[in-house]
UniProtKB/TrEMBL annotation:
3-hydroxyacyl-CoA dehydrogenase C-terminal domain location: 223-319
Family per record: Belongs to the 3-hydroxyacyl-CoA dehydrogenase family.
Bilayer-crossing regions: none
Phylogenetic placement of the source organism: Eukaryota, Fungi, Dikarya, Ascomycota, Pezizomycotina
Annotated metabolic or biological route of this protein: Lipid metabolism; fatty acid beta-oxidation
Domain 3-hydroxyacyl-CoA dehydrogenase NAD binding: 34-218
Sites annotated Important for catalytic activity: H177
Keyword Oxidoreductase: yes
Pfam families (alphabetical): 3HCDH (PF00725), 3HCDH_N (PF02737)
GO biological process, one term: fatty acid metabolic process
Name assigned to this protein: 3-hydroxybutyryl-CoA dehydrogenase
Alphabetical list of InterPro entries matching this protein: 3-OHacyl-CoA_DH (IPR022694), 3-OHacyl-CoA_DH_CS (IPR006180), 3-OHacyl-CoA_DH_NAD-bd (IPR006176), 3HC_DH_C (IPR006108), 6-PGluconate_DH-like_C_sf (IPR008927), 6PGD_dom2 (IPR013328), NAD(P)-bd_dom_sf (IPR036291)
Length: 319
């Protein structure tokens, strides 16, 4: 019943795209080979879950060999933890690990059926990568982004090579916005741009379900659903710290113990990455023009100092 509701909502949200599209809705396409661009915390998590749950080979692309090495070492750690806790057998862990195919060459995505981009939240970087993906991936491949806040319509527009009437590439662009940490969180937002076809949305929903995720469909508006709600909460917690309403521990303790969440907003911001939080707040602020989304000065300063949270070793906490 729930899945039917998601599908109906998806088709409703993409009805505008279908109106422009010459192809009627078709069933979801099968994904036999996945590509992931960016082996950071999100990309690595998506790749690992796909290998474990869908059992598909994953071509994991990163332009930094160091990031690939770090990511795969983390995958090994997560898999051996699963084995130790008897959640999976050693054979299952080995099988999943063998499906991860690291590479620094994006051209290796030339036979992927579905690609998920998870590079940093920098618009031009994503536009350049999607223009490249449209060029090198097979014409049937779905091109998905894990963006937290950048417009899917704009990302899709970067695949047209300047010819906005040609929707052969832009219709296969969609967002699959996974939540962090990917192996743990079940939620995923599916967001279609103006150009996205209903078949693309169907395939994205089906593939995310194969990964054991629960898709929520949202519209292409700044912050979509999850970050439209979560980021102002985190930003407000940072303002509370900045203005001395409470110290770090008081802020995190009251929200953790008062709202029954596993961690307080400042610790959560460290886990997400303060650069990512700032990038999302900037999009919300700039795209809506609403001052309620102004990023806090302390958040800006911490990012300027290179204090990005867990990934850099220092944020609101030391790691
Ligand atoms: P991250 O900084 O941990 O990882 C990004 C990776 O991309 C790095 O390994 C980097 O080397 C690689 N990269 C950079 N440029 C590249 C290029 N040109 N080609 C290939 N690889 C490249 O970032 P992250 O936290 O994993 O976030 C990735 C995306 O996921 C962002 O769009 C972010 O907004 C989104 N997201 C993040 C979270 C979160 O909690 N961190 C949650 C949901 C969505």
């Amino acid at each position: 019943m729930a899945s039917t509701t998601v599908t109906r909502r998806a088709l409703l949200l993409t009805s505008r795209a279908r109106h422009f599209s010459s192809t009627a809705a078709r069933p979801a396409a099968e994904v036999k080979r996945l590509g992931v661009v960016g082996a950071g915390q999100m990309g690595l998590g998506i790749a690992l879950v796909a290998a474990q749950k869908a059992g598909v080979p994953v071509i994991l692309v990163d332009n930094s060999q160091q990031s690939l090495d770090k990511g795969l070492a983390f995958a090994d750690k997560l898999l051996s933890k699963d084995v130790t806790k008897q959640r999976i057998s050693q054979e299952q862990a080995d099988a999943a690990r063998a499906l991860l195919k690291p590479t620094t060459s994006i051209e290796d995505l030339c036979n992927a059926d579905f690609v998920i981009e998870a590079v940093p939240e920098i618009p031009q970087l994503k536009f350049d990568i999607f223009a490249k993906l449209a060029e090198i991936c097979p014409k049937h491949a779905i091109l998905a982004t894990n963006t937290s806040s950048i417009s899917i319509t704009r990302i899709a527009a970067s695949t047209t090579g300047g010819n906005s009437t040609d929707r052969s590439n832009s219709s296969r662009v969609v967002a699959t916005h996974f939540m962090n940490p990917v192996p743990v969180q079940k939620g995923v937002e599916i967001i279609s741009g103006l150009q996205t076809s209903s078949e693309t949305v169907e395939t994205a929903i089906e593939f995310c379900r194969k990964l054991g995720k629960v898709p929520s469909v949202s519209a292409d508006r700044p912050g979509f659903l999850a970050n439209r709600i979560l980021m102002p909460y985190i930003n407000e917690a940072i303002i509370c710290l900045e203005t001395g309403i409470g110290d770090r521990d008081a802020i995190d303790a009251i929200m953790k113990n008062g709202t029954n969440v596993p961690m307080g907003p400042l610790q959560l911001a460290d886990f997400i990455g303060l650069d990512t939080c700032l990038a999302i707040m900037k999009v919300l602020h700039e795209e809506t023009g609403d001052s309620k989304y102004r990023p806090s000065v302390l958040l800006r300063n911490m990012v300027a100092a290179g204090w990005l949270g867990k990934k850099s070793g220092k944020g609101f906490y030391d790691y």
